Amino acid sequence: MxxxxxxxxxxxxxxxxxxxxxLTKDYFNGEEKIPVLKDINLEVRRGEMVAxxxxxxxxxxxxxxxxxxxxxxxxxxxxxxxxxxxxxxxTQQALFRRETVGFVFQTCDLLENSTVYENLxxxxxxxxxxxxxxxxxxxxxxxxxNLGHRIRQPSNRLSGGERQRVxxxxxxxxxxxxxxxxxxxxxxxxxxSLRVLEYFQKITDEARTAMVVVTHDAMTxxxxxxxxxxxxxxxxx
Amino acid sequence: MALKxxxxxxxxxxxxxxxxxxxxxYRDLIRVSVREVVRKRRRYIGVVAAIALSTAGxxxxxxxxNDLKKxxxxxxDLLGGATIINPYFEKKSYERLEWFRPRTMEAIAKxxxxxxxxxxxxxxxxxxxxxxxxxxxxxxxxEASYWNVxxxxxxxxxxxxxxxxxxxxxxxxxxxxxxRQIFGGDKEAIGQLLxxxxxxxxxxxxxxxxRAGDRSQFAFLPITTAKARVVGIxxxxxxxxxxxxWDDVVPxxxxxxxxxxxxxxxxxxxxxxxxxxxxxxKRIFWWVSLFIYSSIVATMILGGFGIWNIMMAAVVSRxxxxxxxxxxxxxxxxxxxxFLFEALCVTTSASLIxxxxxxxxxxxxxxxxGANPPEGLFLMCLAGGLAFSIILGVGSGLYxxxxxxxxxxxxxxxxx
Lengths: 237, 416
Ligand SMILES: Nc1ncnc2c1ncn2[C@@H]1O[C@H](COP(=O)(O)OP(=O)(O)OP(=O)(O)O)[C@@H](O)[C@H]1O
Ligand SMILES: [Mg+2]
What we know:
heterodimer, A: alpha/beta, Rossmann fold, 6-stranded mixed sheet, 4-stranded antiparallel sheet, 8 helices, 10 strands, B: alpha+beta, 10-stranded mixed sheet, 15 helices, binds adenosine-5'-triphosphate
């Protein structure tokens, strides 16, 4: 019964996966209040790939952390597929993140002392995916970022671009509902950037995933369906 | 275009799915934790060494401590004679001096806590001549159990035994000073003939042992020989009762008068207990135990702080990893169990190494002091060591693990 209800909600909400309105986030430096996000309004539908641009320090990563439920916004509304995720408990938020969000960090962190395979396996372990299903999914995700041949390589012996691609593959391996990527092509050459972007386009098109990509790079924003600019704490476009 | 079926992102459904895969998830997470501990073993070398050594120390101290204590007690005890009670009869006015009958000795030996008993006859101012010189000494007639009661041994030759006593053999054991005065030395004395009251006795041994110093001017004959041949020797009016432990001394000395009275005439019976040495020995023993137990407690506390410290440091230095894992979908509990399991893994393997080291240490020490620690005690220590390591692992790992699991992802990721 819940299922059909959610289905109805979803179609009723016109395929809107992410809905953010009047979201604000202040940081505190001791007594001093630093308002980073002042009034963010954003809708992302299935199959959309939204580029968020803006000067350094404007709060792009902050916004992405809020969307990924890694930090609580100061105020505002945030719904994912009709669920008011800000009112969930900590554990429910973590469950939700596990099942629906794929996150690519700006710093493209990988687990040290682990192979590429183990890095991609961990999200599947957390999600409780059966052991025999894991290798195929991992290989598929790696092929998509052109790294199938590095599957057994220790992560600390990868180049910067390879690390970035591994962290992209890791964000995608568990088939998330929407993907948050912080400068996913920052360290890639043209050829690999294109490949990653085409892959992004393909999964947003075919799997109807929603995607928010933070970028400085014109080529990346060209590939997106929509462009927004974050400046002075407000998102425009 | 074929649309991918959408995941059900109702929270109740997610929670249900999480519960149904919990077993598989934790089994895999345990495997991952072990793998990570093995890969990062360098980080743990210090704490493993600390716990292994304190476990080994703990086992050696407990197992050997008891043994050392026992040896130590024995020596102390002999020095002070703290467990030896001396009942004797005192002469009352004109009446005849009472003496200990065999059946009385049997009854005394049956008092609980009595280890061994013996009785003696005495002649003070006995004399002998050797190469025309005259020597005075105390002559004591003793049973073979006498040696046992005072833990005497033979410094030279042998001490006479039950058979010599039964046969009334003409043998004598002499104190070391007496041997030196008469014969010029211990070795020279063995085999010589000593004449007392026109009887010749062969010197078979020189008295030795911790308390032999008190009796270095004595000569000892088998009690039967002394009764039969020495003129003017007393009846056995004095006896010695050795108790098993200090704690038996008081009850045994309380029971003695009744036991004697039940077996024979007890006129003039006196009980002599060495109260002062007893108290002194107990005091020393108390200090020794205090020392042993406080070293054990100190090692335990040090080991605990060690792992606590390392786990705390691990949480700080691994904040990025924690944040990353949460971003990859780890729940708080996944992180908590991971850290806890790593702590357990480290402490248990460390204590296994410690148990091994402890075993080697115990073997070596017992070889060194020629003791034989009870196997049961070692097994107890083994179980204790393992239990200790688990408590240590959970106890000192819990708080850091909880801290790690409560960490906000963004704080972890921004931590540099
Ligand atoms: N925990 C914090 N406490 C205080 N200020 C913070 C904190 N985290 C971030 N900030 C500040 O918030 C602002 C936005 O940071 P953010 O990382 O979101 O910028 P960004 O747009 O991602 O920049 P870049 O393009 O360089 O990655 C910055 O000025 C930063 O200094
Ligand atoms: Mg940023």
